[in-house]
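### Sample
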Amino acid sequence: MNQNARLRSTLLQLAGGLGAGLLAASSVAGAPEPLRAAPAPAPSASPKPPAPAPVVAGSYILGPGDSLQVELLDIPEYSGVFTIGPDGTLYLPRLRSLYVEGLTVPELSWFLTEQFRAYVRDPQVFVNPVVFRPVRVYVGGEVARPGYYYLSGEQALPEASGGFTRLPQASRSGRLTAQVAEANPLVAPQVSNRPLQLPTVFDALRAGGGVTPFSNLQEVSVTRRQPLGSGGGKVRANLDFLSLITQGDESQNIRLLDGDTVVVAKSSVVLREQILRAAETNLSPYQFEVFVSGRVKSPGAVVLPQGSSLNQALVAAGGPMLLRGRVEFVRFYRDGSTDHRQFGYSPGAPAGSPNNPVLMAGDVVRVNDSLLSAGVVVLNEVTGPFLSVYSLYSILQ
């Protein structure tokens, strides 16, 4: 049995001894049920071995790139600040390389205490993160640009106790600090009662280019892996993210951890009111670009605010000409399908109606020729060369 398997087996036995019966995440959007560990049994009269810290679902899971302050009480030569390597191992004096990826901070503290017991009588080990790795999350579903993104929050904690030097603070971009409600199953991880400044769902959606007219912000899910000591696997929280935009409910803007997956559901109809509310925030780009051509006064690329409709694009292009035909609308979807249709120009049609759809970035709008305008164009093409010859002949006479 390799070291990783032995560590996992030990942690699973620990979780079983503590009776850590985790509750499944509720699927009710906006009111997810918290995941809790069962209370630990009363400690025995004997002080040895020390009772390990209880396993709590939602705790920060350590991984490559995290730097930890490890203090072995009264033995400074075994203490210091150490970084988890790319292979998930932590190199410590005397203990050498230990595989610690997938553990929480309390689990690691208990694990190191057991490892030092072979060299130190009654060891007392304290572990405190000082630098956190960048968070890599997948943003999928109905967002402008799905994919993997690295998000940075406040990576360094305030100066650690015990004389250790604070490591440099990592850069931040687009971080929205939010307090996460205790009722959420993916609670904000805490170390020594100090919350980690980690990126949030808002940051993830913003990194993914923001929402589209079909994004259903009332159905946003976050999937997260559990610590090894909790049995592994994954938990999921269903969020009503729209309430953050409309009511300022930050309990729906949970902090994200490395490896989380954020998925936005797709609506079958255009949610124009929602995208207008989103445009009032910095969640999505304020403007987008479409292309207008044909029988308009200023054809070309047109920049519009979020939530604009086809008629607004035509007005921005100078308006349609007097002699015009039907309006042609083309939209290309990520799955390779195309929305291609024609309809009559209706300046009084409400936004979102079949004759005045709400636009997305990259849409193409063309005002076609009518029979009369097409005839005029053909006539000009036919008579143009003769008029040019006649004009030249008049000049030479």
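Residues 3-39+54-266 form a domain with the Outer membrane lipoprotein wza fold like fold (CATH 3.10.560.10). This sample (Polysaccharide export periplasmic protein) is used throughout the tutorial notebook.
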